[in-house]
Every structure is written in C-alpha cells, then in structure tokens.
Input
Amino acid sequence: MRKEILERTNRWIKKAEKDLLSAKKLLEAGIYDYSLFHSEQAVEKYLKAVLTYYNIPFQRTHNVLKLVRVCSAIDKDYLKLKELNLSILFPLGIEVRYPEAETEITEQDAREAIDVAEKVRNFILRKLNIKNL
Output
C-alpha cells in the first residue's frame, strides 16, 4: 500500500481519536449534547479512514449509515456495524448543535454514543490492522 494513503488514513484516525477523547471529556463536564456530537464525529471520521485506506472517494456527509453502506460495498464485514445503535449518532448528533434541536440529550444518551463510537473504533482498527497510533 502506498505510503501516502497510509498517512492520510492515519490522519483521519488521529482526528477521530481526538473527537472520541473530546466526547469523553465533555461527558465528564456534563455537556451531553456536544459529547454526543463528538461521538458522531469520531464514528464519521473512522469510517472515512476506511474509505481513505481503500482509496475510495467520498462526498462530504455526516450520514454514518450511508458511510457504513459504502464501506460494506468494499467488505461485507462492515455490515456488522449496523447492529450497533448508530441512530443515537445520526441525525441526532448533528441536530443537537443547533438551538432549534428539540431533543434533550441525557447522560445515558451521551454514554451510549461513546460506547457505540468505541465499538466502531475497535472494529475498524482491527479490520485495518492498525495497532499503534
């Protein structure tokens, strides 16, 4: 695999790692809506890392369900991610950023979103055989 592709993949993963860390810190601070948002962002970036790894172009999107579908076209194993509660992330994770959002995000919601993000992370790092970041 070309070095450039691996470097771009790692940049996506490192950004995803920062989003996941941010989600955890925001949860600790009691800022549940933005914790959930950063969990969504982490999952989105992990999935975009997969597409980058396989050199598959992708459009700008927050739709993690769509990204899972695109990844599963490469490898059917990615369909396993649909077993997770991705709906906690999208579209809710995007909507909560705006004052018009009517859903109150609870601590449990934020914890579940982090759990989903961690499961996606672990799955993708295993699939891409990435051990050290």
User: Anything to note?
Assistant: The first helix runs from residue 3 to 28. Residues 83 and 116 are 10 Å apart (CA to CA). The chain has a mean pLDDT of 90.
